[in-house]
Description:
Layout: H1 3-18, E1 64-70, E2 75-80, E3 85-90, E4 96-100, E5 106-111, E6 117-121, E7 126-130, E8 136-140
Antiparallel strand pairs: 1-2, 2-3, 3-4, 5-6, 6-7, 7-8
Amino acid sequence: MHRRSFLTTVALAPAALAQTPRDWSGQQPVRYADPDVIALDKRFEKYRIDNTTIQRLWTGALWAEGPAGNGAGRYLVWSDLPNNRQMRWLEEDGHVSVFRSPSEYSNGNTFDFEGRQVTCQHALRRVVRFEPDGATTVIADK
């Protein structure tokens, strides 16, 4: 995709989304394929799986990023950066709660193959891993 066609696509995307009114209450079911799941680059269309819809799990963050799912624990964590905390959504009952506070302004999360959370801490300029016993292991700081 050329830069000009990419910019045109990005510029037109909000208008296309605005044409699809969205009821986030869950009262109005969204049909498959979800019209709000789009590929800005047509080359990625073949990777789209049309068997789910976008769901809003929580509101309340000024700026949220770094979502990471823990399959074994059946939960999702993400960073609420300006509030210096991490949030957690539990699949079991849909409950959202503060997971880590302060989070040292973490802004990236993942889980390793042993289920331990790895996160980038902006305030301390380091990457850490949280051990099952609560200890913190510094992976990188320089």
